[in-house]
Amino acid sequence: MELVLVNLIDGLVTGLLLFMLSAGLTLIFSMMGVLNFAHASFYMLGAYFAFQISLALGFWMGLLIAPIIVGVLGAGVERYGLRRVHQYGHVPELIFTFGLALLIEELVQFLWGKNQMAYNIPDVLNFTAFAIAGNSIPAYKIFMIFISVAIFIGLLYVLTRTRVGMIIQAALNYPKTVEALGHNVPLIFMGVFGVGTALAGVAGVIAGPVLGTFPGMAFVLGSIVFVTIVIGGLGSLWGALVASLLIGWITTFAKSYNLAMSDVLNAIGIATPENLADNVFRDLWTVTSPQIADILPYILMVLILIFRPYGLLGNRDA
Amino acid sequence: MSAALELSGLTKSFGKAEIIRGVDLSIGKGERHAIIGPNGAGKSTLFNLITGRFAQTAGTISLHGRNLAGLEPYQINRMGLSRSFQITNIFPAMTVFENVRCSLLWSMGYKYSFWNLVSRSKALTEGAEQILEQINLTARRNLPAGVLSYAEQRALEIGITIAGGADVIMLDEPTAGMSHSETDYIVELIRKVTENKTLIMVEHDMGVVFGLADYISVLVYGEIIATGRPEEVRGNAKVQEAYLGEALEDEH
Amino acid sequence: MSDTAKTTASPQRAGAMSLTLGPWIVAALLLLVLPFIFDNNSSITIMNQMWITVIFALAYNMLLGQGGMLSFGHAVYMGMGGFLCMHVMNYVEDFGIALPLPVLPLFGGLFGMGFAMLIGAISTSGAGTRFAMISLGVGELVAACSVIIVAFFGGEEGISGDRTYGLPFFGIEFLKQIEVYYLISFWLMLSAALMYLFSRTPVGRMANAVRDNPERAQFLGYSSRWVRFYSFMASGFFCGIAGGLFAINYEILTEENLNTSSSGIILLVTFLGGVGFFFGPIIGAIAFTLLQTVLSLKTELWAFYAGALFLATVMYFPGGLAGLIMMHVPAFKFRNAGKLVMPYVKTLIPGLITVLGIAALVEMIFHYRHASVGDDEMTIFWTTFDSHSVVPWVIVTVITAIASYITKTTAPDLKEAWGDANTPPTTGGDA
To answer: Strand C159-160 and strand C252-253: pairing?
Structure first.
């Protein structure tokens, strides 16, 4: 029972981290109708910038400054890159973000090399917050949860309670009308892109010390983030939240409980074949849940796309 | 009399809004039938229901006596019903010739074959050229369709619509947004290419409607309030009221 | 799509309906002769890799260019074909069946097609984001499975075989690279011709129509879904052939043949070459393989340059290299191409120097940051200097700045000459 609680907390941390990326991505999607393949690259940039800043000014300044730099870079990419490619249509836009992801990875390797950076948890947070049945919960995890929840509430507040949020929501759905009302829609788009990438930057800053700051970090998380927003329903913020948590918990539990396929099959009444070593399906029988934990989101996504193409909370018209 | 197209009790709702409220209509073979009505009456929705673009909420549609319920647009097309669109809907990156040839492929029995070469078929090339001749675009043959003028694109749209040899042709506002001379050209074209076919069209230009149509139906708020010969419809009190009423409302 | 596509889509495209044999004969002759010109082993190895990539890229473009479907997991179909061929190869060797090596890729093709039918059945109902995401998901799934399902994929180390297994084929044992070269070339010609012909069949033509306007195609009697499905199937077949040739050439397949990076590379190759023309992917595959093999010998940063080139292509030349070439057709037709030579020389030479100058600066920064301590010497463009002294930095910066300035000032002239060259001659009447 205690283990369940520990896993719930771990899954929550992973899920909220995913959400910080998927929230921005899904906002950007509803704005431009294009999945930003480079989104996780901004997450990586966040981690690297924060590391570089933390060398000189410490962790907290990194948390403050790095996301701003990432956001400005993101806005620049929208203004000078995507807006240009937009005229060619959706497929080139998608390809552009894909190429950008490649380039950023190469750029990071170019500047910082291929090795993992020594970007660590700040000393202030490097202690055990509490323990559940012998499993210690580090304070940093609690800090991550706190930051993510604060950001989510802030985002929700801005989008639903402020004038700017109203204009953004209207601009997402009716850009032409909002433009006719005298609002600078391209600026709004650029701003949303900037804020979305800045959010990814924040995620990078706080995840860098635990998940590692290395050139492959964008790639590791990148496709999972798309999967998240596809499962949640493209363009749906709540969908992104639900899917992020779902994926966080599914993968955490699958890794934590060593469930073997043979047990599952035996339980539903299929007996293990006698000469397993010679059986064609031997690998299927020996599969365990930690082995497939990382591909469970993909399986989930393909199933969702087959049976519920608009995602869990997606809008049919989107 | 056998009807080419028969609608009975046709209803369509979007959420709570009922856009088409029980339309009964029978269009005979070889008729030129115009559907008119004020903006927002549901004319385009009616078109989309008939051609399978939307699914109806209730009622039946039958083409040559066969029920169209649950059929996909391509299946309906194969049964001999072809349509054009209100907003020009062509293949902009392909050449004019290619546009027409693609619309001939299915009706000439090529289906999904990958053992025929389209350029080897004399029938295809000649058929496409004949259509181009009819719509006066022979000179534009090798241009990408996207660079044609608006009127030419509309003509191409009609060409694509009739090319498959469908015997029921549905045109959605074929003259929308055209100048007078362009309208005359398109009307002549429509008259020419729909000879001996059933024509159903939505149109706002009353000159076109009264010039072309054998029968007129008036659709107001999702209901047909009158059907008949042009002169009957013109004199119909309800029609007068619907149109004049709208005109009076506009003045306020 | 873009202005370039519009201007180039003129008669060539429509006129290409007539099946001209010229280019094909030239290509076949080139394939025959090339090993005599570049006869060392490494060149032949590069060419083998190149032709396999050409087949793969052409097959990929059946989806992207001709069908408008963006796949992020296409390495799977090539990989699947390759893995199966490897198993067939080993099976045939173990049981001594008389199966000549040259027909082996056919098995790969059929397997790739079968797998494509399986996945296509669910993914081809749309072309947009849904298709792209399913392809990504399936790609990740298969790549992950390759580590889990050891029986078929061989786990981490993959599976390997021996192509010289069976009876000699007309006395050829495929021991030498050159024999494999001709085997690959044969399949290249065959596959390219078949893919070209496919684009000329009713279903191939409708693939274009569905790409441009799926809804309109529905109202012409074609189901967009089936048209996409058939294209997907055909693409899977030729990917499988490429996979089979890969198996024969390298005699090993690993997870790397299936993963998202490989899928990404083929997208890059195809787009770089140009998706709008049949021959685009061919140019892309040749250019990219050269970049990969030749540039990677010269610099560690080749992937960085490839990424930058790719991004520049998407932003400025969405028609790719093929689009760039075809842009010049009208000028040649109007007999105006000569007017472009001098402006090109005036702009492109300083432009090239600018690019090389920036590359030199990039290399110097890289060397400055990452070279081991004490290793201050570096060599670029046959010049050796100390990367920690100021002088070289100043020289390179100044040269780059001047070249970039000249490029900027001559660019308007080029633009004008371009407009001039693309104006039809007034006397000739309407061409």
So the answer is: antiparallel
Q: What CATH number corresponds to the domain at position B74?
A: 3.40.50.300
Q: Which CATH number fits domain A2-257+288-307: 2.60.40, 1.10.287, 1.10.3470, 1.10.8?
A: 1.10.3470
For the four alpha carbons of C42, C43, C44 and C48, in that order, the dihedral sign comes to positive
Contact: C219, B147; criterion CB under 8 Å: no
Confidence of residue C417 (pLDDT cuts 50, 70, 90): confident
Cβ pair A17, A148 in contact under 8 A: yes
C183-223: pLDDT as tens digits: 999 999 999 999 999 999 999 999 999 998 998 999 998 99
Whether residue B164 and residue C221 make contact (CB cut-off 8 A), yes or no, is: yes
Predicted ipTM beyond 0.90? no
Residue of B nearest to C208 (CA): B94
C25-29 LR contacts (CB < 8 Å, sep 24+): C27/C189, C27/C192, C28/C189
Q: Report in angstroms the alpha-carbon separations of C258 from C141, C158, C187, C422.
A: 10, 11, 22, 45
pLDDT at C241 over 90: yes
pLDDT of residue A285: 75
Give mean pLDDT, residues C151-169: 81
pLDDT tens digits along A181-218 = 888 888 888 998 999 999 999 999 999 888 889 998 88
Overall domain count for chain B: 1
pLDDT tens for residues A67-115? 999 999 999 999 998 888 888 888 888 889 989 998 999 999 988 988 8
**C14–B98 C-beta distance less than 8 A:** yes
In whole angstroms, what is the distance from residue B8 CA to residue A69 CA? 64
By C-alpha distance, which of A79, A52, A87 is closest to A66?
Answer: A52
B197-206 pLDDT per residue, tens: 999 999 888 8
CA gyration radius for chain B? 19
**Which of A95, A111, A306 is facing C271, going by the closest CB pair?**
A95
Q: Give whole-number Cα distances, B105 to B72, B84, B117, B164, C207, in Å.
A: 18, 17, 11, 8, 12
Q: Which two tokens stand for residue C135?
A: 């392809």
Locate C211 and state its tokens.
Answer: 């790409």
Structure tokens at A230: 């596809």
The more confidently predicted of residues A269 and B53 is: B53
Which domains are delineated in chain C?
Answer: 3-303 (1.10.3470), 330-421 (no CATH)
Contact C311 A87 (CB under 8 A): no
In chain C, residues with a C-beta closer than 8 Å to the C-beta of B98 are 14, 205, 208
DSSP at A117 = B
Q: How far is C423 from chain A (nearest CA, A)?
A: 25
In tens, the pLDDT along B70-111 reads 899 999 999 999 999 888 889 998 999 999 999 998 888 888
Inter-chain CB proximity C219 and B97 less than 8 Å: no
Query: Which candidate, B3, B68, B18, B2, places its Cα nearest to that of B221?
Result: B18
Its domain, for residue B139, covers 3-251
The encoded tokens of residue A214 equal 């290395």
Which pair of structure tokens corresponds to residue C293? 């093999």
> Which amino acid is present at C99?
L
pLDDT above 90 covers what percent of chain A?
A: 25
Residue environment code for A184-219, b if the CB has 16+ CB neighbours within 10 A, otherwise e: ebeebbbbbbbbbbbbbbbbbbbbbbbbebbbebbb
Rounded to the nearest angstrom, the minimum Cα separation between B52 and chain C is 9
Closest CA to B246 of B86, B36, B69, B67: B36
Cβ neighbors of C20 (< 8 A, separation 6 or more) are none
**Chain position carrying tokens 């029968």:** B215
Residue pointed to by tokens 């008949």: B228
Tell me what pLDDT residue C226 has.
Answer: 94
